[in-house]
């Protein structure tokens, strides 16, 4: 059963310099119990996408097109009050800066209880009990509920936030880089907890990170974003064996792994596109080693490239050649000189 | 080497440049007219090529300069207020012009020294015969008018108001205005409410006669405490708490007390009280009266109701100034007080026409009439209301909250009341009394160019006396003139026959200077006559 | 302690990627959008013009008395063709006085602000950068000045010194550098922690070089902003002191005009005499406040409208 | 916490001593004869010298200073030259008037400031906000004494709604605090000066509240609160306003301190019989002990309020602790 | 190849005095954060040493002391044969020329008011290079080594006109323009996107090749350390707990903390089944450190004996030292 269906979503930010197209034409689906990981470079629109689902976009941001169908209803069309009732109860969020997401002047317990009371008829006592329950689920002592945020370590705060998100058994958890600021040891533990709880509760999860190894460990599906668009979507297993999009290929090259033995890292030259401009072709065109004129004029749509595998590239068929070439340093060096050259011409 | 060329050749032939002059003037908020007049004089003198500037100076700083050891000043503006005791000419003739007082610290801050004048000033002081004394005073005025040791700019008028719908029979005295010692005693209430409400814009601070410093404190204290002699509205000394006095000789005076006087606590007033009080004031060095008490040599009780004062030297103002001022204190209270100077005296007990009721600092003093007093008083008492600023008084007058003001209205308010916009001041009667005090520009006669009499005379032609009176005082006051110290309002002592320099005529000033040998150099700067 | 909102948030000016553009371009850009700031600039230019050319603009000598055809003094006349702002109780032209007062206000404002920011910024930079004992000592001095109530102190100081605008400037400066010092210090503290300062140290830059070449340019926007506040503060202080009667009576200033108006008992009847100098103060200060608002947006990008 | 307060009080005492020392020497360098306003200039020089003697003004500066310090420790500021009464007594009489005016004005300023500031932050970017800011800046630009004059002109002289000066209608007598201060008459007198002072003060809490509110509104926990599906009003009051109030309140305590001094002008214009007006007069009259005493009291109040600000900060913000 | 040590650290300590609360003014006892507590290290010429460890373990502090941004509380640093004792003045200029540092945040390391040329020329100017041509040539050369080519394109730009990766290169160019012998890189890539991270890592790698640079590379990211470094030192609460060749340490960790750390690193391979060792995630209070082994309270293997342990490093395998009283075998039990 489909829990969430995002269709042709466009999100704009109004800025002093003009309109910034943070998300353009993004579509994806999420099944009950499925966890999907969003990865991509900084500024590619991951947070924007997450926030749009909860309709938490900043004042200057707006959904200009598209539908977000959650349990059969289009969230875009819902009123403020209706959205408010869905938030936390149905869709809960663990935000990017969990560290600062707790109000410093209230105890952690109060803040969890407050969330519960906003959506149920529970008494304060019951809510407190529930808070204790979720605290124990994520491995914190109940007495910690009385702590103020500043009395807790980063890892504990992060867990408290997760506990908060779980307190009403939401259908969907949106976790925006919940572990980025944490140590590996702590991160590891929290990831494990998230994973086990999500499986246990059978909620769906949208997990945002820039660390593909994290996705590989905890998500069923991976979505690679670039410049406000989805470049590739696949089940994690398939993706890590056989990424198809040139950008994904580049990412894999650039990612050092603790298991690797002396393979040389190759980065993707260039920078992400300026979303302020009106971009017509493929978003990755500037940095793509395999581009053609077609790529420059036409944005490829997300296409089926196998079971559970969607790719937005005009040349899916050539992926084998691409994969081979992508492992070579020269391929990417060529891009670098190309970019420099283009700049010079532009200047 | 070589010759220094100062200017065209004939400059060298001339006298010295007139030194640069600083007039220490009042600050505008302290005395606007003085301030303005000093500025005017500066402009006039600048036109005549004198290097001069005005320096508005804080009053305390001014006094420091005038009375300090250094005597470092050229000219200044200041004034003498017209307190009633100053109707006696001694203060203005002797204190401020006698050469004895011309040293640092003395009141003769003009450093005026004229032996002929000194002789007259001494003579009037010691002459107990009033007519002869008047003759001396007249002559002294003549000399001052010729020598112009200072230039009197103006005298203020005491413009005050009272509520004519509620009271009549008020007394208006030069130098004192409406709230004098007679008005509360004689005023006649026209309505059932027989409490007189007096407005003041000056604070009362203490009711201790030994600590009182302001005129306003005294104006109230002298109604609570009685005095041996009071000055009548015509400024004649009349025995009050005394039945009379005998001038035994030039230095011995007997005072005969009344025998029907009681303090407010019921205790009889005796000669002991009088002797005690005078000795207390002398002993305690009460600054306010120090100069009046200085001549007293001895005080004796000669019989039950007679006190004999022995003087060190003949002192003509003894009755008019000394006896009219010292309040009689109850010995039985004061002898038990450790430090009378610092005593709070929160419930003053006197023997005067009014009995103290209540005093709240900064707000009001309430007194009721002494029904057992030897004179009949028609009101039931009065409230002395202290206002923070004249603005408040004006509002209170509009609201009929006040029956009388005790200070001189500021010109802006005089106009407002006169215009009587909308008839809101219909109930008020405005009174005017000339002040015997005066404001003047004084000079340091020890310094050039003020040591030059002609220069001073020329200066007196540079002062626009009409401007001061008509523009700055709005007409409420009287004109000044060179060397004028006894005001026409002081009818008895004023010598109308003396011609004084009191016209504004810059051309004439120039002529006088030229005649006196002053010259202008090629830069237009005024130079002193060549020796 | 007194954290001005400005100081706490300034840090982000430099850290934010988009806003590291120059100070003035952003400001000018702001002017285009912010009408109030534009009004402020225009008004300020107007006042500065009036201040510079005051002697030409003022139609009369400020002390000149005016008489009517019958030779009577034009006492307390309401505004008219001849006297735009009316006359005083001795027939003086209030318009001329107000115009000349502009000069005084601007002189005091600008000089005091310069002095204050100079001292305050120097102390702030030295304290913030040096840290340790120097910082502690300087900050105790700042604390000391914070404990002194402003107006009463300036009253006393102007009474001790002779009444003159120079002494008012001195008095204002003596007490106000503390604010600038503290704000600058806190900003310097945060700048000094930033890696580019560390990098400079690693490169071997001397302390003075770091202070002058690295820290100073980065606190200049804040200093400019504070300077604008100080101009206002000083003008207000001068007016207040003069109004209380501690000003220089021979120097026409707005506070002085109001003081004379008040002490001569005309503040309740001659509205034109009370209103005009006050309005001048309001307009001048308002113009600078409008400008500081735009400046503030430059210094603190979070205040900017997107 | 107690230790912290103790330490702050200790530094405060040191500061008061320093400030007092400074003010002491400042006054001694003041030119002018302090007797000028106490006695008539016509009195003989000897008498004036006696007066100086009596006030100890002829002693060496050092001796005067040690006496001053000794007295200060006993909270004795000496006798006022002008009033001849102990300065402490005079100040005690004046302080209630000042404090009442001050707190009324602060209350007025804070209620308007906080509500207005929060509202302006909420309405950010709208015309209403610009309007609000402009109004508050106008009052910040207008000298309080001038606004006072204009208010008197309009409300007291023209409209006659309120009395324009003083603290009480003359003739009213009352003895106890209640009789003096808790009357309708007193309230009527209080309204204009406290509104004027309040209007002048209002910009501070208003702008701090607005900025602080803006800052808080951009905090992550506000977004989190939205994400929790809390009601808008709850977010505004429970999360945003509560946190935004922190700096406003602490700034408020600090501000009371500095506003103390600023009241001089308002008291002067409204002839309000308070400490501020008295300090102005005392300086004019060269009444050192009184001016000194009043100044030290005001300075101590300022410092005390700084202390209160620090303590409040600790109490209100659980993040800071001095345990 | 056994080369000379370039830097040798002996018993280095850095204690920060913390004024934690006002009560302290009444108590004599002073409280310290022991950011570095008695560590000794050797960095050989031409070697890249990786320094890893939990947040707050003292990595940055160590780096900053090495470039003398901070004074050590105690201990010696022997740089290129010169001994620098704690609190001793050193020949600043010469030292400054030979030791440089690169910081974590690419947006913060450059003065926003300097253009790129000024930024890189600054160290030269400080060190008295006056000839303008000389300066220009060296700036260009440094930029080219940092692979900002063509260099002329960049020199007039301001930092905000560059991308994160470019800024970090500029920072590196500034670091190498004086041709130092030793470079401390404090998490130079942790703020960069993955796609550009590799560039910087490669650049650092090449610097050693081109300039023979010795380097201390500070990071909490073991993957990048593995990629870049020859040897690795693991820090825990101000102590070095393990040190050895990168490969050895990662493949055969000897210290329990290293084991935990390694087991926690996520791996980008869905098929790889990682066995995490789960431990208490609360780090002990830095002021009140546990007795004996600092890792003791969290250590899955800890025993009573650990409470008396003084953090001596034992050579458990060749050139691989571990500060644990138990060797591999004992741990296995
Ligand atoms: N409030 C805003 N106003 C204008 N532009 C914005 C705003 N928020 C985000 N953007 C821009 O929208 C784009 C997408 O931002 P978003 O925060 O969604 O990226 P992200 O993928 O979450 O990046 P990161 O990995 O850095 O968190 C970026 O270019 C960003 O600069
Ligand atoms: N100036 C300072 N004063 C007091 N304590 C400090 C100071 N600088 C650092 N510390 C403390 O010293 C310890 C080590 O800090 P350091 O920055 O070296 O850690 P790190 O390993 O670099 O951490 P991270 O990975 O978070 O950068 C930390 O507990 C830190 O809080
Ligand atoms: Mg994000
Ligand atoms: Mg670090
Ligand atoms: Ni503060």
Give a structural overview.
The complex is a heteropentamer of chains A (347), B (531), C (306), D (323) and E (333). With 347 residues, chain A is an alpha/beta fold. Chain A is 36% helix and 22% strand. Chain A has a domain of 122 residues: P-loop containing nucleotide triphosphate hydrolases (Rossmann fold, 3-Layer(aba) Sandwich), CATH 3.40.50.300. Chain A has twelve helices and twelve strands. Chain A starts with a strand and ends with a helix. The radius of gyration of chain B is 26 Å and the shape is globular. The longest helix of chain B has 18 residues. Helices cover 28% and strands 23% of the residues of chain B. Chain C has 306 residues and is mainly alpha-helical. Helix content of chain C is 72%, strand content 0%. In chain C, helix 8 runs antiparallel to helix 10. Chains C and D meet through helix 1, helix 6, helix 7, helix 10 and helix 11 of C and helix 1, helix 5, helix 6, helix 8 and helix 10 of D. The complex binds adenosine-5'-triphosphate (2 copies), magnesium ion (MG) (2 copies) and nickel (II) ion. The site of one adenosine-5'-triphosphate (ATP) has 13 residues of chain E, from strand 2 and helix 1.
Short descriptors:
heteropentamer; A: about 350 residues; alpha/beta; Rossmann fold; eight-stranded mixed β-sheet; four-stranded antiparallel β-sheet; 12 helices; globular; B: about 525 residues; alpha+beta; seven-stranded mixed β-sheet; 17 helices; 22 strands; about 25% strand; disordered N terminus; binds adenosine-5'-triphosphate; binds magnesium ion; binds nickel (II) ion; ABC_transporter-like_CS (chain E); ATP-binding (chain E); nucleotide-binding (chain E)
């Amino acid at each position: 059963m489909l829990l969430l269906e995002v269709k042709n979503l466009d999100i704009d930010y109004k800025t002093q310099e003009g309109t910034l197209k943070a998300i353009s034409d993004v579509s994806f689906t999420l099944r009950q119990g499925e966890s999907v990981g969003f990865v991509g470079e900084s500024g590619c629109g991951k947070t924007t996408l997450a926030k749009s689902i909860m309709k938490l976009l900043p004042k200057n941001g707006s959904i200009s097109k598209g539908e977000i169908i959650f349990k059969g209803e289009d969230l875009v069309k819902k009123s403020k009050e209706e959205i408010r009732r869905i938030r936390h109860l149905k869709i809960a969020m663990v935000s990017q800066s969990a560290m600062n997401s707790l109000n410093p002047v209230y105890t952690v317990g109060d803040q969890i209880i407050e969330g519960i009371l906003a959506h149920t008829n529970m008494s304060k006592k019951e809510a407190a009990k529930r808070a204790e329950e979720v605290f124990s689920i994520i491995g914190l002592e109940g007495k910690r509920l009385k702590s103020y945020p500043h009395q807790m370590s980063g890892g504990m705060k992060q867990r408290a936030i997760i506990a908060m998100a779980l307190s009403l058994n939401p259908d969907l958890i949106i976790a925006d880089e919940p572990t980025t600021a944490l140590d590996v040891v702590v991160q590891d533990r929290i990831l494990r907890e998230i994973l086990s709880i999500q499986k246990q509760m059978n909620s769906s999860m949208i997990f945002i990170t820039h660390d593909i190894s994290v996705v590989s460990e905890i998500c069923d599906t991976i979505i690679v974003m670039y410049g406000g668009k989805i470049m590739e979507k696949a089940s994690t297993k398939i993706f890590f064996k056989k990424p198809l999009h040139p950008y994904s290929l580049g990412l894999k090259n650039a990612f050092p792994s603790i298991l690797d033995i002396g393979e040389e890292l190759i980065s993707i030259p260039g920078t992400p596109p300026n979303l302020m401009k009106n971009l017509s072709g493929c978003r990755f065109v500037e940095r793509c080693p395999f581009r053609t004129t077609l790529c420059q004029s036409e944005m490829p749509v997300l296409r089926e490239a196998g079971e559970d595998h969607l790719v937005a590239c005009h040349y899916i068929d050539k992926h084998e050649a691409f994969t081979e070439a992508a492992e070579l340093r020269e391929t990417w060096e060529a891009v670098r000189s190309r970019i420099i050259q283009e700049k010079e011409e532009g200047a | 080497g070589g010759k220094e060329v100062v200017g065209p050749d004939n400059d060298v032939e001339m006298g010295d440049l007139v030194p640069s002059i600083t007039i220490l003037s009042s600050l505008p908020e302290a005395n606007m007219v003085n301030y303005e007049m000093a500025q005017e004089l500066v402009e006039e003198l600048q036109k005549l090529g004198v290097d001069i500037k005005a320096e508005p100076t804080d009053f305390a700083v001014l006094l420091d300069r005038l009375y300090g050891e250094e005597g470092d000043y050229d000219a200044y503006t200041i004034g003498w207020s017209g307190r009633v005791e100053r109707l006696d000419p001694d203060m203005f003739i002797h204190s401020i012009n006698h050469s004895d007082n011309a040293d640092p610290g003395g009141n003769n801050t003009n450093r005026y020294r004229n032996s002929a004048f000194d002789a007259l000033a001494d003579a009037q002081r010691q002459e107990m015969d009033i007519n002869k004394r008047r003759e001396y005073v007249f002559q002294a005025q003549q000399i001052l008018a010729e020598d112009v040791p200072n230039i009197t700019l103006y005298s203020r008028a005491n413009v005050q108001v009272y509520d004519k719908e509620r009271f009549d029979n008020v007394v208006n005295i030069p130098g004192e205005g409406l709230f004098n010692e007679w008005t509360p005693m004689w005023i006649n209430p026209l309505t059932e409410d027989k409490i007189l409400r007096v407005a003041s814009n000056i604070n009362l601070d203490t009711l201790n006669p030994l600590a009182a410093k302001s005129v306003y404190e005294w104006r109230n204290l002298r109604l609570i405490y009685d005095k041996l002699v009071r000055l009548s509205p015509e400024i004649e000394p009349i025995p009050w708490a005394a039945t009379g006095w005998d001038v035994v000789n030039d230095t011995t005076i007997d005072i005969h007390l009344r025998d029907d006087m009681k303090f407010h606590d019921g205790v009889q007033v005796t000669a002991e009280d009088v002797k005690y009080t005078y000795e207390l004031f002398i002993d305690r060095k009460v600054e306010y009266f120090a100069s009046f008490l200085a001549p007293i040599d001895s005080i004796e009780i000669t019989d039950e109701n007679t006190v004999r004062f022995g003087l060190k030297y003949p002192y003509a103002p003894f009755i008019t100034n000394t006896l009219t001022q010292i309040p009689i204190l109850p010995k039985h209270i004061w002898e038990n007080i450790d430090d009378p100077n610092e005593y709070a005296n929160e419930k003053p007990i006197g023997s005067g026409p009014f009995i103290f009721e209540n005093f709240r600092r900064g707000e009001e003093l309430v007194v009721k009439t002494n029904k057992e007093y030897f004179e009949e008083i028609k009101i039931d008492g009065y409230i002395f209301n202290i206002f923070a600023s004249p603005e408040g008084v004006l509002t209170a007058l509009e609201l009929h909250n006040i029956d009388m003001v005790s200070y001189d209205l500021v010109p802006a308010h005089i106009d407002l009341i006169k215009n009587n916009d909308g008839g809101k001041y219909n109930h008020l009667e405005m009174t005017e009394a000339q002040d015997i005090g005066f404001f003047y520009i004084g000079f340091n006669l020890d310094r050039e160019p003020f040591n030059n009499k002609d220069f001073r005379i020329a200066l007196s032609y540079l002062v626009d006396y009409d401007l001061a009176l008509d523009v700055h005082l709005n007409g409420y006051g009287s004109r000044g003139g060179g060397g004028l110290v006894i005001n026409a309002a002081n009818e008895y002592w004023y010598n109308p026959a003396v011609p004084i320099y009191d016209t504004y005529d810059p051309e004439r000033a120039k002529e006088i200077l030229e005649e006196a040998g002053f010259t202008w150099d090629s830069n237009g700067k005024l130079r002193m006559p060549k020796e | 302690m007194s954290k001005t909102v400005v100081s706490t948030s300034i840090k982000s000016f430099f850290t934010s990627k988009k806003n590291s553009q120059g100070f003035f371009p952003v400001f000018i850009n702001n002017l285009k959008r912010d009408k109030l700031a534009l009004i402020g600039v225009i008004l300020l230019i107007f006042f500065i013009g009036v201040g510079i050319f005051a002697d030409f603009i003022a139609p009369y000598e400020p002390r000149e008395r005016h008489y009517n055809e019958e030779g009577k003094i034009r006492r307390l006349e309401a505004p008219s063709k001849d006297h735009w702002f009316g006359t005083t109780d001795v027939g003086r032209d209030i318009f001329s006085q107000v115009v000349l007062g502009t000069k005084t206000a601007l002189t005091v404002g600008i000089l005091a602000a310069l002095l204050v920011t100079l001292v305050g910024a120097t102390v702030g930079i030295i304290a913030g950068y040096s840290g340790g004992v120097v910082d502690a000592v300087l900050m105790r001095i700042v604390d000391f000045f914070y404990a002194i109530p402003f107006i009463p102190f300036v009253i006393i100081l102007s009474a001790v010194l002779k009444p003159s605008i120079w002494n008012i400037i001195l008095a204002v400066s003596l007490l106000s550098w503390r604010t600038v010092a503290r704000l600058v210090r806190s900003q310097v503290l945060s700048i000094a922690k930033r890696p580019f300062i560390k990098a400079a140290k690693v490169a071997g830059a001397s302390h003075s070089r770091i202070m002058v070449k690295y820290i100073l340019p980065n606190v200049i926007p804040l200093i400019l902003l504070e300077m604008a506040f100080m101009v206002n503060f000083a003008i207000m202080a001068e007016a207040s002191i003069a109004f209380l009667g501690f000003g220089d009576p021979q120097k026409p200033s707005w506070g002085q005009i109001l003081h004379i108006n008040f002490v001569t008992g005309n503040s309740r009847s001659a509205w034109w005499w009370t209103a005009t100098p006050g309005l001048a103060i309001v307009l001048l200060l308002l113009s600078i406040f409008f400008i500081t608002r735009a400046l503030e947006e430059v210094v603190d990008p979070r205040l900017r409208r997107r | 916490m107690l230790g912290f307060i103790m330490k702050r009080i200790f530094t405060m005492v040191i500061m008061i001593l320093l400030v007092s020392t400074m003010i002491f020497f400042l006054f001694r360098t003041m030119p002018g004869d302090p007797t000028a306003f106490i006695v008539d200039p016509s009195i003989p020089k000897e008498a004036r010298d006696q007066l100086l003697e009596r006030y100890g003004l002829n002693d060496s500066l050092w001796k005067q200073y040690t006496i001053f310090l000794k007295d200060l420790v006993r909270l004795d500021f000496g006798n006022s030259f002008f009033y001849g009464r102990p300065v402490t007594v005079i100040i005690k009489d004046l302080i209630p008037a000042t404090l009442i005016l001050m707190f009324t004005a602060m209350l007025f300023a804070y209620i308007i400031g906080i509500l207005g500031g929060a509202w302006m932050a909420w309405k950010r970017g709208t015309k209403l906000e610009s309007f609000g800011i402009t109004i508050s800046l106008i009052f910040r630009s207008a000298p309080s004494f001038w606004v006072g004059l204009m208010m008197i002109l309009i409300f007291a002289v023209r409209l006659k709604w309120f009395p324009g000066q003083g603290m009480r209608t003359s003739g009213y007598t009352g003895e106890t605090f209640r009789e003096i201060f808790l009357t309708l008459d007193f309230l009527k007198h209080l309204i204009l000066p406290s509104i004027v002072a309040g209007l002048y003060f209002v910009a501070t809490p208003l702008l701090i509240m607005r900025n602080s509110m803006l800052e808080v509104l951009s905090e992550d926990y506000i977004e989190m609160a939205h994400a929790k599906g809390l009601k808008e009003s709850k977010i505004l009051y429970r999360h945003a306003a509560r946190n935004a109030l922190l700096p406003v309140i602490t700034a408020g305590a600090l501000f009371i301190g500095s506003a103390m001094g600023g009241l001089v002008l308002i008291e002067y214009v409204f002839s309000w019989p308070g400490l501020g007006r008295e300090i102005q007069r005392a300086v004019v009259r060269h009444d050192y002990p009184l001016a000194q005493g009043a100044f030290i009291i005001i300075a101590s109040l300022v410092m005390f309020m700084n202390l209160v600000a620090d303590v409040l900060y600790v109490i209100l913000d659980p993040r800071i602790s001095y345990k | 190849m056994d080369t000379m040590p370039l830097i040798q650290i002996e018993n280095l300590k850095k204690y920060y005095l913390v004024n934690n609360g006002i009560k302290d003014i009444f108590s004599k006892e002073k409280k310290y954060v022991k950011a570095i507590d008695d560590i000794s290290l050797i960095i050989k010429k031409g070697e890249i040493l990786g320094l890893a460890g939990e947040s707050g373990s003292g990595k940055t502090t160590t780096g900053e002391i090495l470039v003398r941004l901070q004074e050590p509380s105690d201990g010696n640093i022997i740089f290129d044969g010169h001994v620098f004792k704690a609190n001793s003045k050193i020949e600043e200029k010469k030292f400054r020329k030979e030791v440089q540092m690169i910081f974590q945040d690419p947006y913060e390391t450059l003065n926003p008011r300097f253009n790129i040329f000024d930024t890189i020329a600054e160290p030269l100017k400080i060190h008295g290079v006056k000839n303008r041509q000389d300066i220009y040539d060296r700036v260009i050369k440094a930029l080219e080594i940092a692979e900002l080519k063509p260099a002329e394109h960049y020199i007039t730009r301001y930092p905000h006109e560059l991308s994160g990766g470019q800024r970090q290169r500029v920072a590196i160019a500034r670091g190498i323009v004086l041709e130092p012998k030793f470079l401390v890189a404090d998490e130079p890539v942790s703020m960069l996107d993955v796609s550009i991270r590799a560039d910087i890592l490669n650049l650092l790698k090449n610097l050693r090749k081109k300039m023979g640079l010795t380097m201390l590379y500070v990071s909490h990211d073991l993957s990048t350390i593995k990629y870049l470094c020859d040897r690795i030192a693991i820090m825990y609460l101000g102590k070095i707990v393990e040190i050895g060749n990168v490969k050895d340490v990662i493949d055969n960790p000897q210290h329990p903390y290293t084991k935990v750390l390694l087991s926690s690193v996520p791996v980008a391979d869905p098929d790889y089944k990682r066995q995490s060792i789960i431990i208490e995630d609360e780090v002990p209070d830095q002021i009140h450190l546990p007795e004996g082994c600092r890792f003791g309270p969290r250590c899955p293997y800890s025993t009573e004996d650990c409470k008396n342990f003084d953090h001596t490093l034992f050579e458990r395998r060749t050139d691989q030292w571990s500060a644990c009283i138990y060797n591999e075998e004992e741990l296995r039990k």
